[in-house]
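Exercise 3.2. Students should predict the tertiary structure of the chain below and write it as structure tokens, then compare their answer with the key that follows.

Predict this chain's 3D structure.
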Amino acid sequence: QVQLVESGGGLVQAGGSLRLSCVASGRTSSPTAMGWFRQAPGKEREFVAAISRSGGSTYYADSVKGRFTISKDNAKNTVYLQMNSLKPEDTAVYYCAADQKPKFGSRSYYRVNEYDYWGQGTQVTVSS
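Answer key:
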């Protein structure tokens, strides 16, 4: 089992920045993949960004490319999401996800149902 705890959400004005953190504990064993998803009220959970075990590969939703950056610190079992130039449409609950399957194809990073472990979520609200 892997436990994930997110932090760093809050209220920010449009154009501002936030950095989300997700700490993994338990049977961490370097998760194969870690990602961020978000869910706005009345909408399905959607992919935001993901990173491979080594950190050498990163993946982004088109809506956040150039504004968000995902990174990780394996020594701290922590993954980060730096969010810049925030827009009101970025308002959502942001969830950290992880998986330990030995093989994780590039398309799998984008799919909600490929991740076995989820955090409780952190609210991000961007005011206009």
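Discussion points: The mean pLDDT is 94. The chain is about 0% helix and 50% strand.
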